[in-house]
Write a structure and sequence with these properties.
Number of domains: 1
Order of helices and strands: EEEEEEEEEE
CATH class: Mainly Beta
Structural class: mainly beta
Low-confidence stretches: 1-15
Largest sheet: 5 strands, antiparallel
Helix content: under 10%
CATH superfamily: Immunoglobulins
Number of strands: 10
CATH topology: Immunoglobulin-like
Radius of gyration: 14 Å
CATH architecture: Sandwich
Strand content: over 45%
């Protein structure tokens, strides 16, 4: 199994921010939205993940964000290592994603130890 975690350092302190449209996830201290391009993920075809993260009131952005995906029922991750780049303050683009099997995949976002997950079904 090849780990698909990628990391990027956050800059800045706590501030209000608007999250773009997408799937929204929240933890106690952070909010995150993400979308895939194309919107429908197909088995064996590359896709992109765009995401944005915000600290909630009174919190600062964590020093590190990691992004990964796995198939919980199969107990394995991806065969590819996507990259993650900052596009603007609190905005990121991750390229090189490819889900090689059909079934339930789980995106895993870790913001300073707070884990947010979201499952998607790929056919």
């Amino acid at each position: 199994m090849i780990a698909a975690a990628v990391g990027v350092a956050f800059a800045g302190s706590a501030q209000a921010c608007e999250l773009p449209a997408g799937t929204r996830l929240e933890s106690q201290r952070y909010a995150l939205s993400y979308r895939t391009i194309p919107p429908r993920i197909a088995v064996g075809e590359q896709f992109v993940v765009e995401l944005a993260a915000c600290a909630k009131t009174g919190s600062a952005l964590p020093g590190r964000l990691t992004l990964d995906a796995q198939m919980p029922e199969h107990r394995h991750g991806m065969n590819y290592r996507p990259n993650l780049k900052t596009t603007a303050s609190g905005r990121y683009r991750s390229e090189g994603w490819l889900f090689h099997m059909p079934g339930r995949w789980e995106f895993i976002f870790d913001l300073g130890g707070e884990r947010l997950t979201h499952s998607v079904r790929v056919e």
